[in-house]
Design a protein that fits this description.
The complex is a heterodimer of chains A (about 150) and B (about 750). Chain A has about 150 residues and is of the alpha+beta class. Chain A folds into 2 domains: about 1-70, Roll (Ubiquitin-like (UB roll)); about 80-150, DNA polymerase, domain 1, CATH 1.10.150.120. Helices cover about 40% and strands about 10% of the residues of chain A. Chain A contains 5 helices and 5 strands; from the N terminus they run ββαβββαααα. Chain A has helices at about 20-25, 80-90, 100-110, 120-125, 135-150; strands spanning about 1-5, 10, 45-50, 50-55, 70. Chain A has a 5-stranded mixed β-sheet with strand order 2-1-5-3-4, covered by helices on one side. The longest helix of chain A has 19 residues, at about 135-150. Chain A is globular, with a radius of gyration of 15 Å. Chain A starts with a strand and ends with a helix. By secondary structure, chain B is an alpha+beta fold. Helices cover about 30% and strands about 20% of the residues of chain B. Chain B has a 7-stranded mixed β-sheet with strand order 12-13-10-20-17-18-19. Chain B has a 5-stranded mixed β-sheet with strand order 15-23-22-21-16, sandwiched between helices. Classes of the chains: A alpha+beta (about 150), B alpha+beta (about 750). The interface between A and B is large, with 55 and 61 residues.
């Protein structure tokens, strides 16, 4: 089957019910997308599917063939780049394991809500961080939103 | 050409009062200062300890420099988010006067020179401020033991406490050698040279020399005989919010965690353990798994677990789901949480336990008292649930073993790997990638033993063992459940005259030693069990604290802040009860008992000020306070809470910390936020329960943790201090549960004596 990952076509020969997460990690070597729970409860496996945050651990790969998949390894567009810069500015990651998913969940939020309120962030960022980086994630999302607005003007 | 003698250089050096004699005997009046369990020279080590590759030149066990000016620092502690790669490299870089942007971190190999000599200080049974001969001898012995055992372990908030002297000395020694090389090249005394931002500056008119241009000659210089470390005013990195070395790779997916290693020819394993503690495998039919295309092997790994090996992780899991192992559930098939709780309570009637603190005569004073205040507290078992599930990759080939594991204890894990493979430790290569959270779970080596045992059966192929989240939650080494009983009486001023406290809980120390070195496992007094309870800082004339060690079938281990995690909840809540019984302000009450403890008073007052203590809280909210000392640091917190339809909301936490010298204030702020969130998740939600010998929780829906929407606003304040560094990773966890429980009492009048906190409607 053919997958559109980070702007490239990747071929893989796996059963269609295999979750996208394990195709990315074990078959394609894209290990930036993480396994945390296997039941879409933690968000460590978040990728963007057509620009929408999606939990890859429960997404059968057969259902996403041909659709645009962005993983953390993808060349950053301006939204992801702004988030990554804000993440570094706020020194957000601790262990870092949840951060790929957090950044892509935040990217998806900013695409539909460019200037999110704290309540918008609370509602959109349901990913789990066991290190407790939430306060810096919130600050970094606001910083990225401001930077993107500034660069648009 | 011969370099100037070290003596000639030394003659110009402005020795401080506290010099470190690095080489030679103490002849000539050199001042010999110990350096964490070993001689300073042994801890600085040799260039040969830190094998250079390519064009790198090693100056000692901690520093390599390349011709293109990169400074590579060996960091022997595991990076699990606490910023240890950055914090430890800062120590070397500051003394070396390197520029931060030229510094790179390399995970150190396993060797004695990288021992953690501060780790075992956490088991000293003496009060933190006890400077008596016996206490000092014990602390010295524990440091020496860390070195003798070559403990390469990250835990117990000990990394900076251990590295503070040796890693600064290593930076200073390397700087000295670079200076000597420059002095020789320019033919001027060292006293006319200085190092700044990675350059050695010499006589006027001469272009400064780069480290990279000097390092070959520097390596030929004798190590200095004596060194002084920079006074505070000369530090350029220590104390600054230096950006972390690991952050860039953690925002673009390039950071490699244990679960991400992919050696050539990798196969994947999934595992299921006997669901009942103490049960055994009766039979296993591997055929259903083997029938699945892509499954390579299915077998009983040992009496407690079955394994499927496959071409990818998902197939291994699918294979495992098809297996129906038959378990003999063993003696614990009827074990319930309620029976463990009853067993802990029974201990109070059956034994006196071990006395860990004895001042005055608390038992007699309480017996004679007209009124006593008594209370019982309880906490549940807790899982660690780091976000990266337990995993390990191993390969056994041609008599050599390679292990890739995000371990907090690589020296111990390597020993276990060698035991399982039946080889000498020297035949085991142990790589430590990033850890996706540690919290104490990765001090254990169970996953390493399993992965190596599987790798013995994969025909030389490397195998990656990944536990499911359900296995991770149900087969942890848990934070112990504990029950605590207090009895106290007050003096006419309302302050405690007598305080008797007993804690019944399984022994973490016993379980830990049993897993590491079963022959040394004896049921003996366990400081970790009672830490934070026996070493109460408050002045109470009649004080007795006893430990009741109660064995249960549930394996226990170190969970962020270990015994402090429950003892702070017990003691700081009961103290709050006494303050309310005496109708006194909880802050003033504590301060009245801390007259002889200025650092405790200061940190408590700082948190109170930051948390608006004494100011009216917003409508519907109330505040609670807690103070706790652990791991060489003092932490006080004020929590502001409300109730929303019976649900506890924590809106703000003000946190003050005195951890001695702050190396990286931004990392300390992050660690405090982290420790508070970790403790708050447990205080509000954390509970592992047993039904019929099985853990009832299985994944995040049933063992959840704080999310963004519940995140309080946390503000931190770091106390200025010139004391040596204390711990940072753990001290923020213990105070949060009592601060929140005390706030809930202030809000509702309801005293919650059990975690997690569940107010009655």
């Amino acid at each position: 089957m053919k997958l559109q990952i980070n702007g490239q076509t990747r071929d893989c020969d796996v059963p269609p019910e295999m979750p996208l997460l394990w195709v990315l990690r074990d078959e394609l070597g894209l290990t930036g997308t993480k396994f945390g729970c296997g039941i879409a409860a933690c968000g460590a496996c978040t990728v963007e599917l057509n620009g929408v945050a999606t939990r890859a651990c429960v997404m059968p790969v057969g259902s996403v063939a041909g659709q645009a998949i962005r993983t953390i390894e993808g060349a950053p567009d301006r939204t992801v780049a702004a988030l990554q810069a804000a993440w570094v500015q706020h020194q957000t990651p601790q262990c870092g394991y949840c951060q790929s998913g957090m950044i892509l969940a935040a990217a998806s939020l900013l695409r539909r809500s460019p200037q999110p309120s704290d309540a918008d962030i609370d509602a959109a960022i349901t990913n789990l961080c066991r290190c407790g980086t939430y306060q810096r994630i919130r600050a970094a999302i606001h910083t990225a939103a401001q930077a993107l607005q500034g660069s648009r003007a | 050409m011969s370099p100037p003698s070290p003596d000639a250089i030394g003659a110009h050096a402005p020795w401080s009062r506290r010099g470190f004699l690095l080489a030679g005997a103490a002849a000539g009046g050199g001042l010999l200062v110990g350096c964490g369990g070993a001689a300073p020279a042994a801890r600085v080590g040799q260039g040969s300890d830190f094998a250079p590759s390519g064009d790198q030149v090693a100056l000692n066990a901690w520093v390599k420099i390349t011709p293109d000016d990169r400074v590579i620092v060996a960091v022997p502690r595991s990076e699990m988010g606490q910023g240890v790669h950055t914090g430890l490299a800062m120590l070397v870089a500051d003394e070396l006067d390197a520029r931060w942007d030229q510094v790179q971190v390399e995970a150190a190999p396993i060797a004695r020179v990288y021992s953690n000599t501060a780790l075992l200080l956490n088991v000293s049974p003496f009060l933190p401020d006890d400077d008596g001969l016996l206490a000092r001898l014990t602390r010295d012995s524990l440091q020496t033991a860390g070195y003798a055992l070559a403990l390469q372990v990250t835990g117990g908030s000990s990394s900076l406490r251990d590295a503070w002297e040796p890693m600064r000395l290593a930076g200073a020694a390397a700087r000295h050698q670079l200076l000597q090389a420059a002095a020789w090249q320019w033919q001027v005394p060292v006293s006319e040279l200085r190092v700044r931002d990675g350059l050695v500056h010499g006589p006027a008119g001469r272009a400064p020399l780069r480290f990279g241009a000097l390092v070959q000659a520097a390596a030929q210089q004798a190590a200095p005989r004596e060194l002084r470390l920079k006074p505070r005013a000369e530090r350029r990195l220590i104390g600054q919010p230096v950006p972390r070395t690991d952050v860039p790779a953690k925002v673009n997916g390039q950071a490699v965690f244990g679960l991400d290693v992919r050696p050539e020819g990798l196969v994947y394993a999934a595992i299921a353990h006997c669901p009942v503690f103490g049960g055994q495998l009766k039979s296993l039919d591997p055929a259903p798994a083997l029938a699945l295309q892509g499954v390579l092997q299915a077998f009983a790994l040992n009496a407690q677990s079955v394994v499927v090996v496959a071409r990818n992780s998902w197939l291994a899991q699918q294979g495992l789901l098809r297996l129906a192992p038959v378990w003999d559930e063993g003696p614990n098939a009827q074990l319930q949480s309620s029976s463990i709780s009853a067993r802990l309570r029974q201990a109070f009637d059956q034994e006196d336990g071990t006395r860990f603190r004895h001042e005055g005569d608390a038992v007699q004073v309480l017996a004679d008292a007209k009124t006593r205040i008594e209370a019982e507290y309880e906490v549940p078992f807790l899982a660690h649930s780091a976000l990266e599930p337990v995993n390990c990759t191993a390969q056994v080939k041609d008599g050599r073993v390679t292990v890739w594991c995000g371990s907090q204890a690589p020296s111990l894990a390597r020993m276990k790997a060698a035991e399982v493979a039946g080889v000498d430790s020297a035949q085991v290569t142990f790589e430590v990638p990033f850890l996706g959270g540690g919290f104490g779970r990765r001090l254990e080596s169970d996953m390493v033993e399993e992965a190596v045992a599987i790798a013995l059966r994969t025909g030389g192929a490397p195998v990656k063992l990944t536990w499911s989240r359900e296995e991770d939650v149900q087969h942890d080494l848990y934070r112990p459940a504990a029950v605590s009983r207090f009895s106290a009486t007050l003096d006419p001023q309302g302050l405690p005259r007598a305080w008797r406290h007993r804690v019944a809980a399984p022994s973490i120390g016993l379980d830990t030693v049993r897993r590491l070195m079963p022959r040394l496992a004896l049921d003996s007094p366990d400081k970790n069990h009672i830490e934070g309870a026996f070493d109460l800082p408050y002045a109470i004339p009649h004080l007795e604290v006893r430990q009741l060690r109660v064995a249960t079938p549930v394996p226990v281990g170190s969970w962020r802040s270990v015994g402090h995690s429950y003892n702070a909840f017990f003691t700081e809540c009961f103290l709050d009860e006494l303050a309310h019984a005496a109708r006194q302000d909880p802050l003033a009450y504590r301060l009245a008992m801390l007259a002889a403890k200025p650092r405790h008073r200061a940190v408590l007052q700082a948190a109170a000020e930051l948390g608006d203590w004494g100011q009216p809280a917003p409508a519907g909210r109330a505040r609670g306070l807690a103070l706790h000392e652990s791991f060489g640091a003092l932490c006080a917190q004020v929590a502001e809470v409300s109730l929303d339809a019976g649900r506890v909301r924590v809106h703000r936490v003000a946190c003050a910390l005195d951890c001695g010298t702050v190396v990286n204030p931004d990392s300390v702020d992050a660690q405090l936020q982290s420790a508070i969130v970790y403790g708050l998740s447990a205080a509000l939600m954390g509970e592992i329960t047993l039904k019929n010998g099985r853990v009832e929780q299985s994944n995040f829906p049933s063992y959840d943790a704080l999310r963004m929407a519940d995140m309080p606003v946390i503000r931190t304040r770091l106390m200025p201090s010139d004391a040596p560094p204390g711990g940072v990773g753990e001290p923020g966890t213990p105070p949060i549960a009592p601060a929140v429980a005390n706030a809930l009492f202030a809000l509702t009048g309801q005293r919650l004596r059990r975690l997690p906190l569940r107010p009655q409607a």
